[in-house]
Amino acid sequence: MAQREQISAGKSGVLAHFGHMGEEPMTITDGDGAYVRDRDDEEYLDFTSQLYCVNAGHGNDAIVEAMNEQLDRVQYVSSAKNNDARTQLADDLAEVAPQPLTDVFFSISGSEANEAAIQIAREFQDASTVLTRWRSYHGGTYATAGITGDPAIRLPVESHASTSGNVKFLPPFGGADAAFNADSPEDLTEKSLDHLEYVIRNQGPDSIAALVTEIVGGSSGAFTAPPGYFEGVRELCDEYDILLVADEVITGFGRCGEWFGSHTEDLEPDMITFAKGVTSAYAPLAGVLMRSELGDSLRDDAMDIGQTFAGNPVACAAGSAALEEYDDHLIDNVRDLSPALEEQIRGLADHDVVCDVRGRGFHWAVEFADPETGEPVFDPRVEDGYNPVADIVARTREKGVLIGGGRPLIQIMLSPPFCIDEADIEKAVGALDESIEEVFE
After folding, report:
1. Looking at 326, 344, 371, which one is the last position of a domain?
2. How far does the chain reach from its first CA to its final CA, in angstroms?
3. How far apart are CA 397 and CA 45, in angstroms?
4. Structural domain of residue 304, as residue ranges?
5. Residue 128 belongs to a domain with what CATH number?
6. Which residues of 384-401 are buried (b: 16+ CB within 10 A; e: fewer)?
7. Which of 289, 310, 326 marks a domain boundary?
8. What is the average pLDDT across 370-374?
9. CA distance 41 to 29
10. Model confidence over 104-113: pLDDT tens digits?
11. Helices (H) and strands (E) in the chain, counts
12. Pair (66, 24) in one structural domain
């Protein structure tokens, strides 16, 4: 009886993730394209693709049909065995990945993909240290929280168990959180790379297995690198024999206007970790794309790692169908509409309180600061109390548009499904524009 009363009162026994356990989250019951509906049949434009993952939009018939067809054949195959759907997706991934990446180690989530990449790199290199940037996110498991540069994720894990082999370096960011006093983008690139080389040499190159980096910042704020930065990172990794791992859990599969964010930087990493958009989030699936010499090393040494549900056939069928949808029209739509999306989002800088707008393709951040001091309007890292940025997210939702809060919550995130049109852009940015005015002006 108590359970029935709880359900009828709109409460749930489900514990929400990412710090939302004490809240009463909305209950989404239906989705179609770029829109979702809640239990009260209210419609919302989903302008963060839930968690940057429903790239093809909700209710894509081709993906659903592919999953149903696979369900009629075989629903599960051990991750230690071969399966035709799994092999097909591996071939499809190798076809669209940066050229040197040919082999795939499947996983379940982005965290577990990054875990696998770390294990593979450490074994291959016979070294333990992994370099990552401050203001990064790589997962919530012990190892991936350890390499994450966001303290809100890392510290709750490290308070109960130590993580080792993790060294951070400063990101090449401008704006209010700039780590370097750079005079130009070129100066920022030079200073960032000089700093990175100092960290490598000070740590000892022989102790470093890999450098793991996002290409465009994910929930940390859609930061893009200054010109020449990733070219320099690749050169340093080659010089000091460090594996370069691109975390493309968010930037993969068209989010930046190309198949992978690495393509937008002409970067050839040694490994790419992927998840989220590979199935458009229709089923959990992730993995590591790697160079053939890394794959051959795994085959020869038979490293005893794996996960029960890695490369599930139904998820793989969804993945192949999603890739076909991206290739057929959805990535083209990202390319076509990115200029209009960027123009409208950058127009928000007309508000004095908007200090920075940044991103690429269909992944953007809007950051807020006091126009007189340049400091965040509210900084949850050092302050308690009312956060007007959280109020913007809430007010935009009241206007029928779902946007996300960045990490830290001094910024908001816009990362829509690829099936939107110009009217959707106008609706989303217009609602955000009104919300900023209501909160700050």
Report:
1. 326
2. 48
3. 9
4. 61-326
5. 3.40.640.10
6. eeebebebbbebbbebeb
7. 326
8. 92
9. 8
10. 999 999 999 9
11. 15, 15
12. no
